[in-house]
Amino acid sequence: MSVLRFLVTRQALAALSRPASINLLQNRAQIALASTLASSSRTNSCLKAATTIADGNPCQMQIRGHKRFGHQQEKTPQVTKYFHGLLLGLFVISVLDWGKVKRLLMPKVDADSGQRPSSAAGVNGEETSDSESDDSEEHESSGGLHLHEGKKFREKVGFRERKIIEYENRIRQFSTPDKIFRYFATVRLQDATQTIVCMTPEDFLRSIYPGIKQPDGLGLDQYRRYDPKSVGEQLNLHLEKNSIFYKLGSYGLITFSDYIFLLTVLSISRRHFEIAFRMFDLNGDGDVDCEEFEMVATLVRSQTSMGTRHRDHANTGNTFKGVNSALITYFFGPNMDEKLTIEKFLDFQEQLQREILSLEFERKEPNDDGNITEADFAELLLAYAGYPLKKKQKKLKRVKRRFRDHGTGISKQDYLDFFHFLNNINDVDTALTFYFIAGASIDQQTLQHVAKTVALVNLSDHVVDVVFTIFDENNDNQLSNKEFISVMKNRVQRGLEKPKDTGFLKMMRSVFKCAKETKPVLLDI
């Protein structure tokens, strides 16, 4: 019985297992058949796609692509990585103060950085370092002068004032004459019929001399209002009775037309005016009448950077209306029937330059003896040099150290004589070039000899000593001819010969220069 039960159970188990194996085999056969059909369909589709491309019908082809399949992060191309790295590097280069990095990596070690001599000690036994005094002088060099217990000291220029001065220097260098006049003019004459904007002689000097800050509350289209009938009593211009500015009008004020004319007179040399006069002197007598003078003035003005840059602006009222009637009366008489000689006009140009130089000298506030310091004289010479700030401060420090204890100052006459010598700078350049070609050294005696021979001026030993201190970099008592002539030519021309138009390359240079000057500002934020 037990044997029969065992056999029945075995047959039952065999019957149950047989369909499962058959189903498994059938499933496997179906999977193989499906894969075969799929592969054959893919082959057919590929063949069909190839046939479509061969037939020239690419629009019937369907292509599928997958990006970030399974939300995987897409790889950044190498070109994009290099571009981002370049942008980051340029940003770091533009904001980094490379001067400070250089000082940190390569500290400057002076030969006398060890023990100071006993003579350098102060009255109370405290040592005074030249670096500290130089730093203090550097901060004070551009401040205003004040008197305190009989001595001159300067106000320190803050961050805001320094940035305003830099902005105004860019206005002087790149803006149109109309905007420069509207920015630096401070007087508005207004009555019931008309309004006239004018400059004082101080305003005119401020418009051409870099580094002088416009008074607070006065700027672009901001003026002090005066009644034309009482403006002479209200304004105190501190001018001499025979001042050249009084020839422009009864009050010594400068209109926009006068401003353009005076800039033209200052920017053209004597020789160019002589050539222009001879061109329009038809009868050869050396004189010109009023109409011929108008043509001469128009021709000369068209050759200057201010004249080529100027455009009349009727909405602001700054239109060039020709030479001032008062000046025409001075040149040609009340009936305009006189002749203007070249000698009279050149005398007018010399008087104008002399008065501008006098205004510059008086701004330095001479002492009781009428002298300015050697450092102030050096600053006047380097005003238009175009040096970087650090190089200019280095030269001024050298002058201050050289004449700190035994400086006698520069008188006004010595100052005017030296600039009379500079008016012949082209001839001086030729004479010094001959010395250089001959192999002769240019020492102080040579410069004095050239000044006496070419410009008929006797330069004092003290003025020549200050000039050599400025331009003698290696202390060999020899003048650097190329640098001296270049700086002095810029000083005579007052930057008026530089073109005002900013082309693409000049614009890019200005952008890089602005970025370079604002590096420490970005680091201070």
From TrEMBL:
Keyword Transport: yes
Domain of life: Eukaryota
GO biological process, one term: mitochondrial calcium ion homeostasis
Assigned keywords, A-Z: Calcium, Calcium transport, Ion transport, Membrane, Metal-binding, Mitochondrion, Mitochondrion inner membrane, Repeat, Transit peptide, Transport
GO MF annotations, alphabetized: calcium ion binding
Database matches in Pfam families: EF-hand_5 (PF13202), EF-hand_8 (PF13833)
Disordered: annotated span: 110-147
Entry's Gene Ontology cellular component terms: mitochondrial intermembrane space; uniplex complex
InterPro entries the UniProt entry points to: EF-hand-dom_pair, EF_Hand_1_Ca_BS, EF_hand_dom, MICU1/2/3
PROSITE patterns (UniProt xref): EF_HAND_1, EF_HAND_2
Family of the protein in this entry: Belongs to the MICU1 family. MICU1 subfamily.
Name used for this protein in its record: Blast:Calcium uptake protein 1 homolog, mitochondrial
Organism: Drosophila guanche (Fruit fly)
